[in-house]
Request: fold
Amino acid sequence: MLQNRLVKPEDMIFLTNQGCEDTGQIDETRLTDLGLGYGEFDGAPYPLTDQESQFIGEDVVEIGGHLALTGYSVLIGNRKYLAPAIEIDYTADEDCPFSFNFDQAKEANERLRKTMERLAETTDGCFCWSAEPGIEFKEGDGKFVSEIFIPFEYATKHAENFEQWKAHLKDIGKVVLNQRAA
Reply:
């Protein structure tokens, strides 16, 4: 079990991106050296095994009141994790009725940290979170980016496929959100 559940970006290697594509950041030799399996996609090595691949998808799921992108997976140390990513966008455009301004996004991001902590504790995982925007553009737009890292072992204990996994994520996200509100 991790003592400190907050992970720094430099401590993780992305295995797949939001499109579930191999990021090319690690090869099958390194995974084998770590005692981890890998699979195959279109005749090429793929960083996830067939079983692990069942739990990612180019989709979103609501977790704790935010939409999380579900295609990401990472390697931290010698363990693979699902890595749903939550992006809180903001804009300087006052005419955009469906977006946060910077202060609102910062507040939402601060509340998100507690959700991430509880999700990490619930799933025996960890998370990456920052008080600063992950991406900023010249026009005053940007986004805060956080990831929850959930061990694949947890997923396989609670679901058999991607649809069941999304439903489970949504359910535990609601529980954590209700705990935060209490």
Summary: Residues 102-123 form the longest helix (22 residues).
